[in-house]
Design goal:
By secondary structure, the protein is mostly helical. The two termini are 29 Å apart. The protein has twelve helices and three strands; from the N terminus they run ααααααβββαααααα. The longest helix is centred in the middle third of the chain and has 32 residues. It has two domains: 187 residues, no CATH class; 121 residues. α4 runs parallel beside α7.
């Protein structure tokens, strides 16, 4: 179960999933509240069976049982609300997960509304003498049953069986949630199958264009200044094409802070270089030299990141 929780958290932090949720702050906080309760309830359930003391008063036994049954219920509610937040659908416990529905009904009978269920249709109480770590007896009176023998019912509840049913069914639902998120990510990546970002670099000699900027920095020759302007324009077109393709792959770029930082830096220094060219002040400018050197360095970082992006999106092939 712990591995499933960890994997789910990892998927929820994927830029595609995280970005789609984060734009709705209510949904975002709901998702992470659900994740915390899912894990906290699991911790409480396990602790009940692992740390149950040998010598307890009846009052403490009741308190621990109340907490255990509520833990089952809370975990189910967290899972249902997580499913609703992610996929817009509630879980139909009775239809799709009858074992969990039975646990919910048991909780409602035993500790949820035992003194009046269904507008006085039934009443329930836990037999004090039956209380133990692994079981208890629930006695019920069904007021509207016609036959007298159907009105009183006594049922022994095996808590270990309930724990196992909960764990199994919750695990199945978690696997389905994980599968749906993985398929969403995979489907997004499949859109770019066979389309490499590095193809943009391979089609263009970007190093040549950067070289032309340096040449104009060190020579006031009119031809070299003109070549620098042409090179700058072509680099701008290449950059815009790269950003378009990156945004297609990462529609929520703010959740890729390293990549966003490099792109923002490139945009900034490139605009400064453009200003020097526009004003005819590129030649001999120490400031322009620093900006071009910085641009070359950050541009190379972007190139390496694009290789990594291509590798990431090639994983689905």
């Amino acid at each position: 179960m712990e591995e499933k929780f960890e994997k789910l958290r990892m998927l929820l932090n994927d830029h595609l999933i995280k970005g789609g949720i984060f734009i709705d702050k209510i949904k975002w906080n709901k998702v992470w509240s659900c994740m915390d309760v899912l894990e906290d309830a699991q911790l409480a359930i396990e602790s009940y069976f692992e740390e149950y003391p040998k010598f307890l008063s009846d009052g403490v036994r009741y308190l621990l049982l109340y907490g255990l049954l509520q833990g089952f219920f809370l975990q189910q509610d967290a899972l249902n609300n997580l499913h609703l937040a992610l996929f817009g659908e509630m879980i139909d416990w009775k239809k799709d997960y009858p074992s969990l529905y039975e646990i919910r009904e048991l909780r409602n009978d035993a500790i949820g509304h035992p003194t009046s269920r269904g507008k006085d249709e039934s009443f329930h109480f836990i037999s004090r003498i039956s209380l133990s770590k692994d079981s208890f007896n629930l006695t019920s009176y069904f007021a509207k049953e016609e036959k007298l023998e159907d009105r009183f019912k006594s049922k022994d509840i095996n808590l270990i069986e309930i724990k196992d049913k909960q764990r199994e069914a919750v695990g199945i639902i978690l696997d389905k949630v994980i599968g749906l998120l993985e398929e969403k990510i995979r489907g997004h990546k499949m859109k770019f199958k066979g389309k490499k970002l590095m193809d943009i670099f391979e089609r263009e000699d970007c190093d040549y264009y950067i070289e032309k900027l340096f040449e104009a920095l060190y020579s006031n020759d009119e031809g070299k200044q003109k070549q620098a302007e042409i090179a700058f324009k072509r680099l701008m077109e290449i950059l815009e094409g790269i950003k378009v393709e990156i945004n297609k792959r990462y529609p929520f770029l703010e959740f890729k802070p390293g990549l966003k930082s490099v792109i923002d830096d490139i945009d900034y220094v490139f605009s400064k270089i453009g200003k020097f060219l526009e004003e005819g002040k590129l030649y001999g400018s120490k400031d322009a030299e620093i900006f071009i050197e910085n641009f070359e360095k950050r541009f190379e970082e972007l190139r390496e990141m694009m290789k990594e992006i291509d590798d990431e999106f090639r994983e689905v092939e």
